[in-house]
Amino acid sequence: MIFKGIFILSLFLMGIGSWADSALAKSKNSGLGPLELRNQYPVTHQFLSLHPENTATQKKGKSRLSYHIAVANTFVNTQGHSKQITKTELQNGLTENDFYDDVNWTSGTDDKVRGFSLYLDAETTRHTFEYRFGLSDSLEFSLDLPFLSFGGGAMDSMIESVHDTVGVSNAEYRGAFRSFSEKNQYAFYVVRDGTFIFNSEENFNMVAAEPVIGLKWGLSDGGSVIPALSLKLAYKVPNSEREGFYKLTRSGGGDWGHYLILSKGYGSWLAYFGDGQTQIQENHNLAKTLKHRFMALEYRLSKKSSLLIQTVTQSSIFPKTHELRDLEANQEQRNFNLVVPTNLFMGGYKLEWNQLFWEMGFAQDYANYGNETDFVIFIETGMQW
Amino acid sequence: MVKFRTLFPIHLNQIICIGFLWMSLTCFTGNAYAIDQTFSYLSVFSGSQDLSASPGGLGSESNYFEWLEESHGNLKENRKVQPSVIGFDFYRASGVVASGFGLEIQRYKKSFNFSDGSGLTLEALGVLYGFNFYYRGDFWFPFFGFGTGNYSTKIQETLYSGSSVTETTVFGQVDTTVYYKLGARIPFNSWGLVLTQQYTSANMEVASANKNVALGGVSTLFGLYYGF
C-alpha cells in the first residue's frame, strides 16, 4: 500500500513538476528498448515468463519477424555440503534416498528433507521465433513459437575456469560444488518433501514448447515530464501432451501475465522500468505466480545502436512449503534459500541496419540462491517491414 | 557463478581519500565545466545509515531486533551501519534546472551482539534507482530524488537458549523498497563533492522469526563524483 501510494504521489509530482519542463524538452522517451530475455532457469521453461520490453509498439500495418536464441548454463547441487551427490552417485543413478538428510539423529522417513532439494546440471537452449504486428499505432499483436533443447552443453569448463581465475573454489558453495560432478553432463532432478517432481537424464533437442500470444498497448508516449507507458498482456496456449521429457517443456496450462512498462529519455540516455506478474494455471507443485520487475539503462551510441545494462528481479519458481523456524538446522534450512526472490544483471548491445536488427548480450545471477541460471548468453536477429 | 560482491570488493574510504586528493590537485587546472544538454555523474559515497530511524513518513515495520531483545537481552551496539555506495546518474539540463535518472549500488555488513552472548551478522546488497531533479546554482546543485529498488540480504544468527545454541542462516529479499533523498553536489570542474540525506523504506520479513527488519532507515552520505 505504501509503495502504491508513493507511486501515485510520484506521478502526481511529475505531473505538476512543470518547473522542470524546459529541462526535458524534446527528449524522446523510447529508444531501441531493453534486452528482451525471459527467465532461462530450466525449471521455469515450461511456464510463461514475461520479459522486459520497450514501451514503443509496432506502428499500424508494420511487421517484425525475429529469431532469438538463448543458451543458459545452470548447476545446482543442494547435496553439495554433505557430498551426498558426487560423480559416483550420479553414475549409479540418483534415487530419492540421495536427497535425504544424512544427520544421525533421524532415520527412515524422518530423513526426508522438507521443502525443495535439487540436482540440476543442464545447459538449455531456447529458440524463439517471434512475430509482431501493429494493429494500430499503439496496439501490437505478438506470437512467440519456442523450441527447447536440454543437454550437457559445453560451457562448464569455461565457467569453472572463471571461478578459478577469480579465486572461487568449485568445491564450495560459492562455486556451486561443481567439481563434484563431471563437466558437460546433463541431469535434471527436482525433489519436493523427499519425492521426485522431475527426474530425468534424457537429452532432447528442438522440442516444441507452448506458443505465447501477446498484446501490447502503448498507453502514452509520455512527454517532457511524464514517462512513456505501455501495458503488455500475454497468454500461453496450453498443450496437454506431457509425456516423457515433454514434462520439462510444457506445463499444459493456460498461463497469462501482464507487464506495466515505463520509459523516459534524457538525451542519449534512456531509463526503463517494468513491473509485472505471471499467473501459472498448472503449477505442478511449483509456484502459482511469478512476479517480475526490471530496470534498464540504455545509452544510444547513435540513432541505430545502443548499449544496455539492466537488472531483473523475479520471485522464485519454488514456493515456500514450510516456515523456516519449523525446519531443522541442517539441509532443510540450507535449502530454504531456494524460495527467495532472485536478481540478474544483464548487459548487451542493440543495432538496427536498414530493415535488419541485431541484439546480443549476457545475463549473470548475482544473488546466487540456486533458483536462477548461472550464466546466459543470447542473440536475437530479424527484420522489420 | 561468482557473487557480485566477490568480484567488486569496495575500499570506499581509500577511494574517497585518494579521490579527494586527486580532485584538489586537478580542480584548478581542468577545463571550465560546460553545461551541456546531457551529462552524467559517477559517484562514490560512504557515511552513516541508521536502520532504526523512521524513514521520513515512508513507513517502517521493524520488530525483529526488539523481538530478539525480549529473549536475549539488550543489544550492545546501535543499529547504525556504514554503507559503501557507488552511484551513476544522468541528466538533461537546460538553464538552471535539470532532471534525470540515477542508479545506486550499496552494500553494508555489521555484527550485532546481545547481552546473553547471542549475536547476528546482517549483510545487505541494495540496488536502488529512480528520478532526480536538480537546481543548477552558481556554486552548488541542490537536488531531490525518489525511486525504488531491491535489497538482497543474508542474516547469520547464533542464538543461545539455556545451554543450547541455534545457528541459522537466513537469505531474503525485499522488492518493495521506496526512497527519497535530498542533497547537493558542489562542483570543482569535472570533479565534485556530494552530500545527501536519504530516507528508505525497505522492510524484510526474517524467515527464521517471521519478524520484520528495516534495511533502509535514514542515511547521511558524503562522497565524491566525476562528471562527464
Please provide a written account of the structure.
The complex is a heterodimer of chains A (385) and B (228). Chain A contains four helices and 15 strands. Chain A is mainly β. Chain A has one domain (26-384): Porin (Beta Barrel), CATH 2.40.160.40. Chain A has a twelve-stranded antiparallel barrel with strand order 1-2-3-7-8-9-10-11-12-13-14-15. In chain A, a hairpin with a 2-residue loop joins strand 13 and strand 14 (356-365). Chain A is elongated and about 65 Å long. The relative contact order of chain A is 0.20. Residues 11-27 of chain A have low confidence and may be disordered. Chain B has a single domain, classed as Porin (Beta Barrel), CATH 2.40.160.20. Chain B is 12% helix and 60% strand. Chain B has three helices and eleven strands, in the order ααβαββββββββββ. Chain B is elongated, with a radius of gyration of 20 Å. Chain B starts with a helix and ends with a strand.
Topology summary:
The complex is a heterodimer of chains A (385) and B (228).
Chain A: H1 2-16, E1 63-77, H2 87-92, E2 116-136, E3 139-151, H3 156-165, E4 187-192, E5 195-200, E6 204-208, E7 212-220, E8 228-236, E9 256-266, E10 269-279, E11 289-302, E12 305-314, H4 331-334, E13 342-353, E14 356-365, E15 375-384
Antiparallel strand pairs in A: 1-2, 1-15, 2-3, 2-4, 3-6, 3-7, 4-5, 7-8, 8-9, 9-10, 10-11, 11-12, 12-13, 13-14, 14-15
Chain B: H1 4-7, H2 12-26, E1 38-50, H3 64-72, E2 80-81, E3 84-94, E4 97-113, E5 119-135, E6 141-161, E7 164-188, E8 191-201, E9 203-206, E10 211-214, E11 217-227
Antiparallel strand pairs in B: 1-2, 1-3, 1-11, 3-4, 4-5, 5-6, 6-7, 7-8, 8-11, 9-10
Q: Describe the global form of chain A.
A: elongated
The largest chain-to-chain contact, stated as pair and per-chain residue counts, equals: A-B, 56 and 48 residues
β-strand percent of chain B reads over 45%
Major beta-sheet overview of chain A: 12 strands, antiparallel, barrel
Structural class of chain A: mainly beta
User: Helical region count of chain B?
Assistant: 3
**Span of the ends, CA to CA of chain A:** 44 Å
If helices are DSSP runs of H or I spanning 4 or more residues, what is the number of helices of chain A? 4
Spell out the helices and strands of chain A N to C: HEHEEHEEEEEEEEEHEEE
* SSE class of chain B: mainly beta
Residues in helix, % of chain A:
under 10%
Q: CATH superfamily of chain A, called what?
A: monomeric porin ompg
Looking across the biggest beta sheet of chain A, what order are the strands in?
1-2-3-7-8-9-10-11-12-13-14-15
Number of strands of chain B: 11
CATH topology (fold) name of chain A: Porin
Mean pLDDT of chain B: 82
Give the mean pLDDT of chain A: 85
Strand order of the largest sheet of chain B: 1-3-4-5-6-7-8-11
State the CATH class of chain A: Mainly Beta
* Uncertain ranges of chain B: 1-10, 23-36
Report low-confidence residues of chain A grouped into runs of 5 or more: 11-27
